[in-house]
Amino acid sequence: MNIACIGEAWGEQEERERVPFVGPSGYELTRMLSEAGINRADCYCTNVLNLRPPNNKLEALCGTKAEGIRGYPPLLKGKYLRSEFAGELNRLGDELISINPNLLVALGNTALWALTGKSFISKLRGTTTISTLTVDGFKVLPTYHPAAVLRQWELRPTTVIDLMKARRESEFPEIRRPKRTIWIQPTLEDLNDFKLQYIDRCNILSVDIETAGNQITCIGFAPSRRIALVIPFVDPRRMGRSYWPTALIEQSVWGFIRNVLSSKIPKLFQNGLYDIAFLWRAQGIKVFGAEEDTMLLHHALQPESLKGLGFLGSIYCDEANWKQMRERVTTIKRDE
Amino acid sequence: MKIIQTDKMKPEDLKPIEREWAYNGLDCCITAEVLDVLLPQLDNHTAATYAFSRSLQAPVLEMRLRGVLVDQARKAEVIEEYHDQLDRLERQLERIVGEGCDVWDFNWRSNRDLQKVFYEVLKIPPIKKMGRVTVNRDALEKMEAYTVARPIVSHMKAMRDIGKKISVLKTDIDKDGRMRTSYNIAGTTTGRFSSSLSEFGTGGNLQNVEDLLRSIFIADPGMKMGYFDAEQGESRVVGAIEWNLFGDAKYLDACESGDLHTNVAKLCWSKLSWTGDPKIDKELAEQPYYRHYSRRFMCKKIGHGTNYGGKARTLSNQAKVDISMIEEFQPKYFIAFPAHLRWHAHVEQTLKGTGQLISLTGRRRHFFGRRDSAETLREAIAYDPQGSLADIVNTGMLCVWCHRDCELLMQNHDAIVVQYPEDREDDIVPKILAQLAQPIQLNNDRQFIIPYGAKTGWNFGEYKSGSNEDGLKNYFPGDKRTRTPQVSILDRRLRRAYV
After folding, report:
1. Which of chain B's residues have a Cβ under 8 Å away from the Cβ of A206?
2. CB < 8 Å to A157, chain B
3. Where are the domains of chain A?
């Protein structure tokens, strides 16, 4: 079996039959797997906990940090799974090692926690990662638990799409990330080289700015999905926090950017009105040829769906969860 | 220069600032990849919607960058007016709580005091959120069911609302004295815009500005403001939908007859002595029917809700009209306009069958909610009128923007606000009205145009003789008014100190 679906714990029916995913959630899981092109019989289904928590509440199984299982972070806010349930995690680990699937589908927060120590399924769903807890080194794809889908039906299309990705990912055990090259810390000469080599020849130029307060901290240009140039303006490690050594050089860099953005090359943005307005108000730079916008495009296709770039990336790309790379968000840009 | 290969990148090995740069580069690459995946998915409907959204970027950007001038003196005045209201309510509430509950050191901003009054003195069963006793807005609304709590709750709600309005008024405006907003073309599921803080974190939502606040927004010196709103827009769209689907023109004809609500009243109460004279018939429709509500009101308010599948109980709660009156009105209304029920049934059937609807203006929406739920059905029924009207208004706005006779200031769902040189009003306003009236071709060679009403003035508030002479007034050629000289914020005598 190439896919293992891991849920949280037994419900009423599961407890009666002592089999995972046989109640309403199990029925919904089977339907969603089928819509994603996966035969449930080809999946190994299990739970983090092969038991039914009192009143279906995980809190009842939790205690203080001292009572928790060593090495595991809290399962719920400030609440740790008590050490008496460590056997359940060992059992899960043994099951997965004996099955040795290519992909573990973590259904919901509890499964995500058991395999990676992380939570926030809504932020981490849809992107593959490597398991670090309970079993090491397995490829994990988190998505919503079918019980959550039954409660919030609007999560269903996203879950089915995640399961479609699971079908693709189950064909190989390793994580395959797209190859992309990013030029950072450029000199003025590098900018001109990049323009000559890539920008001047591209069909469309993807542009994105990062901001803090009223300032642009860096601007990126990608002439294709494979390569990008990042032009920084702020570097907290340098004197005066400016990346460029002199005001004159920085002025030349802005001249370069003005030149690129006012060229005839078609531009692509995600929520471009924000970037275009900011560039004009902060630097007086006019953008010409803003022809495509992925936020507007996705809204035209699926107006009910989320449309932030993180979400679009999780649905349409095989990239890691790059939105988690930022330590703190300094922008008010809204692309949801 | 440093080069990062993202397939081998380990974010934890990068310095924080390098992570920020790699993040930016990935944003650009992934945007390019998403575009490659999405473009082939477009079909005729979605390609047209996308093209329309893109065409709106320029006017929206212009409005976003221009912003609206704020009358600082008027703003200070409005804040004072709100503080006065707040003081008055505060005194009343202190009296109610003191005399009624024998609690004399009551502070309405203190949750502890509120909990004491509601849960200890008035003995209301405690309302909890996440296991904790709360007196938040939801809790207050639940407490309204208790007669004993109602006077306190109504004061609390009013005071909290005023507090919110004051905080909105104190929102930062830009250094040039203008308030800016960031309209989001993809902000709602229907196609309407949403609006929020500007890119510099100033301003706020300019689409739902409350009446008292409106007068703080003014035209630039030498300019005059024009407010153009689609008349009975959503109702007309409902009529157009029914014509296209079933060839039933009754509702569209009623909308286009000039006075929709009187005509609806005529159809619902056909045995009354209607004369055919629009003026006399309107007077008849305006006569009290139930308490102080007229038949015309019933047709306007209840008819609108009924169009969207509103049930008698819900509409009764919303309009504060006895349920029996609505139960009596709705069958009459459906007999007068049988296509309404057919349309609702059509939406329900389409929703259950395909889960998606295509609006009159060709916008497609796939509904993610349960296809058989009442909530999804309500959303689906409202989708076409709201979405199509938004598209029609935005088409008009685009046309106005292309002609360049005026400057766009705001878009309020079914209305636009512009400014133009005040000495050219009689030349420009008729042009704008003509530009907004975009014809839409319906089935069987019928053309459909939503007319617009125009109001003009120097500020966004309603005209009031004596108190707001510069406000918006129905447009008639040759407006004799002249702009009231602006008072500088420094010349005003303030009644209170405020931050």
Report:
1. 28-29, 31-32, 35
2. 366, 368
3. 3-169, 181-325
Same domain, B239 and B365: yes
Asked whether the beta carbons of B361 and B386 are under 8 A apart, the reply is no
Q: Does A193 touch chain B (CB under 8 A)?
A: no
Mutate to test the interface with A, among B24, B46, B205, B356 (most CBs of A within 10 A): B24
pLDDT on residue A336:
43
B437 pLDDT higher than 90: yes
pTM of structure = 0.90
Average pLDDT over residues A287-313: 96
- In the CATH hierarchy, which fold is given to the domain comprising A181-325? Nucleotidyltransferase; domain 5 (3.30.420)
Residue pair B353/B326 in contact (Cβ under 8 Å)? The answer is no
Shortest Cα distance, chain A CAs vs residue B443, angstroms:
25
Tens of pLDDT, residue by residue over B399-423, are: 999 999 999 999 988 999 999 999 9
Which among B316, B317, B342 is positioned nearest to B329, based on CA atoms?
B316
ipTM of the shown complex: 0.94
CB-closest option in B34, B42, B188 to A294: B34
Rounded to 5 degrees, what are φ and ψ at B275?
A: -105, -25
Q: For residues A195 and A183, is the Cβ–Cβ distance under 8 A? A: no
* CA A79/CA A59 separation, integer angstroms: 7
**In this prediction, what percent of chain B has a pLDDT beyond 70?**
98
Of A142, A71, A133, the residue nearest A104 (C-alpha): A142
Of residues A153, A178, A186, nearest to B370 (C-beta): A153
Q: What is the number of structural domains in chain B?
A: 3
Residue B51, CA distances (Å) to A43, A300, B228 in order: 43, 9, 25
- Confidence class of residue A326 from pLDDT cuts 50, 70 and 90? confident
CA distance B3 to B6: 9
